[in-house]
What does this fold into?
Amino acid sequence: MVNQSSHNSYTSGDAELAHIAVEHLSLTIGAKATNAILRDISFAVECGSLVGIVGPNGAGKSSLLRAIYCHRYDQPASLAGQVMIAGHPVHLMSRRERACKIAVVLQESALPFEVTVREVLATGLTPRKPLLSFTSKDDTRLIEGIAADLDLTRFIDRDFGSLSGGEKQRVLIARALVQQPQILLLDEPTNHLDIQHQIETLSLVRSLGVTVLLTIHDLNMAAAYCDQLLVLNKGQLVANGEPFQVLTSELIQDVFQVAADVAVIRNTYTHERRIRIAYDMPPSRTIAPGSAGERRG
Amino acid sequence: MKMPYGLTVAITFSVLCLSVIGAAAQGAFDLSLLNVFQGVIICPWTNDCALSPIEQQILTDIRLPRIFMALLTGAGLSITGAILQSVTRNPLADPYLFGISSGAALGAVLAMSAFTGAFSGFLAATGLSVVFNVATGALAGGALSVFLMLTLAGKSAVQVEKLLLSGVAVSFMLSAFTSLVIYYSTPETAATLLFWLMGSFSGSNWADLILPLLAVVLGSGLFFIFSRWLVVMQLGEESAATLGVPVHKLRLGMLLVCSAVTAILVAEVGGIGFVGLMIPHIVRLLVGGQLHRVLLMSLLVGATFMICVDVLAHSLLQDQVLPVGIVTSALGSLFFFIILKQRQSR
It folds into this structure.
């Protein structure tokens, strides 16, 4: 299991936790105005909160993350509006300055060559180290400390490619922490993970104490772990707020075209509200009376 | 179980030193290992030399420059291959795939045919032969190939797949021009050009070594300086960009450095294929995929391999020297065939 003992220990010491403000963000890729990927999106994120971005495929979730970390598109792309981190516009920061503030965990892609977990973690030092420098004892201590916190020590010298999906995801999150960022962006961190690793990954992210924005498909998971949800549909922000405010049957019907029952459960002691979504799925096949399936049931 | 990295480097370095000495003893004129030791270690510093002047001359003026040229070529092409594979994240990238070698070969062939053809008198008379020689021709050709590749790829040069495709296209185009030049040459010139294209270290002298030495030393220096960023590139371009690495500039810069190193080497020794592709693969089998290890070991293994290939080229046939390119290509295809068979049986 992941050791979650060290809360709030991963941000750089000098900086306060960031506050993100996105103001009238629009993104168009290609020449045509109809290719708008994001349309006039504005929202704010409080320090240290875990924000989930949900929406159907092609809604612009990953593009929103990309706009925050100033991704350079290969095609001509026009971006309007701005993203501020602790009052500073992201697009005015240098590449390195930005990498010191924002760490990004992308969906894991296959590596062409063997790279050890330790090496992958060490790449997190890149923005803070000059080109001509050796990994110091302090750097090694930082890497090994984070590896220990995330329960990676036993395979720190193994090939990254030989790890399971959940382990790889943990390594990539650990690498992001080596960057000592103020903000952590994760693009579908639970993709391809089984339910145990999904829970483990989201619990880990929750425990970090860094401001986190992540894209996620599973609405129940999003509701359980996020402080704030942003719902995107066709490039527009259609809802923004706490999960129990945002996730309603109507919204799920509108955005995902799926009928769903949303139950709000209130804890009698903590008064915490949680929601549980049950989707109305059409039966895939009918079971004949007396068949093996019915007898088992 | 892999050997410790330090030990592997030490062994490889020792093998390299032994191969230099062994290669110096090997040849039509008999020299013992003792002779070579004397010739290299004692004779340059004292008058008490046991070697005859002719033996001394064969060793220092013919064999050693040839061996060091092989060493530099092997080291240079191998590290260039390793870098190209790393910046493109493509295990099949090598200087040939990008058309750099074809460009350099075309430049060199044009320069050589100009010397033997109609312009030879003009070049000699005007003293331009100092500027327009095989080396400058190859450099210009290498530069032309990179220019064409980037121009053809246009704005998509930032995408590695487009860059590779464009490189392959340029490579074929320039090879076609080279064949055309050879086709229209006189039979004697054509034979010279063909032999040159297949690669050879024979005829190298100490002065020829200066430019390749500079290229390999400076190029390798740059590769090691940028290795921190190059490792990040292996994780993927977008990840590298989020870590503050100027991905496109780095790739272009590395491509230009690789082109310069390759063009200078091709200018001196002709076309020698498969080395830049094969050696980094062998090295990864030996020491794993960590980039700084791959770079250092590519230099050492590449150098050793090329010296051995040169010895083979000299000793396979009686009284005849095989072109080095033929030996490397034959060994290269054999190597990949073995790897393929191993993977299939796994």
User: Anything to note?
Assistant: Chain A touches chain B through 33 residues (CB under 8 Å). Chain A has one domain: 20-296.
